[in-house]
Here is the input.
Amino acid sequence: MAPITKSEFIWKDGALIKWDDAQLHLLATAVQFGTSMFEGIRCYDTPDGPQVFRLVDHMRRLIDSCRTYRLPLTYDVDALVQATRETIRANKLKGCYIRPMVLLGYGAAGLEADGSPLETYIPAWEWGTYLGAGALEAGVHACVSSWQRAHPNTYPLMAKAAGQYLSSQLMKWEAKRNGYQEAIGVSPTGLVSEGSGMNIFVVWRGKLYTPELDGTLLPGITADSVMQIIKDLGMTVEPRQIPREMLYGADEIFFTGTAAEVTPVASVDKVPVGAGKRGPITAAIQERYLAYVQGKVADTHGWRTVV
Ligand SMILES: Cc1ncc(COP(=O)(O)O)c(C=O)c1O
Here is the structure.
């Protein structure tokens, strides 16, 4: 994956600060215990200028993550949207990745975190394809992870909290070590849940399925967009329980995520998915999704925010 390309400014609590000045103390609560709510958002360089995809929905999810962890964020959706636009403009960015973070800084020594200030940062930088060049066409080789997703009501997996991503890192690192590009996690009951940083869709016997929201996965904003696109294309998708073995008999499988966009899965555990390449349903959805985010079709759902 591409390294971070430094920008000039980062938004911090109402002001733009220099990129290199966005520093945390070693003993910040977020460093000690992972208390950082974050988002991953993409801005696309469209024919009408830079436009951020589903910015409002990402900021709503960020606020929900803070509410779940009882972090007293005082910015509302509109303030966070405006701050993001300001950051992109100040850095003269076009296509970029935005990583808002609301975290507990330095102060408290213990878990209760009294005295650690809540700090909000919005960094943005230039960024390309997440799963490597060619992944969007050829697909990726995935494995079912030996690491399960957390049980519901352990970590609130509908929240996007940094500490919870230790689970995703275990999955991703194991997959890469074993020669795969991505991992698919199963829930504590053994049903298909999600990838390390993406949701999953399965075409099985000609019908489209995605795991239901069962407390083991993130409600992806790309997945939500794709569900609408599936309807727009005159197809249906059913959120349901997906046994692992459906993956091995699937006609097509694809991942969705802000970073991964719509990425076909070419094989699971070395079993080719369908013909082992991007299938026609995935191709149709991917094409519409990319055209939408890249501003090549009208914004019929009001998903693009002009910078
Ligand atoms: C664990 C996990 N699942 C799913 C997703 C996809 O979510 P979205 O489409 O909102 O980017 C992400 C990415 O943020 C993720 O980290």
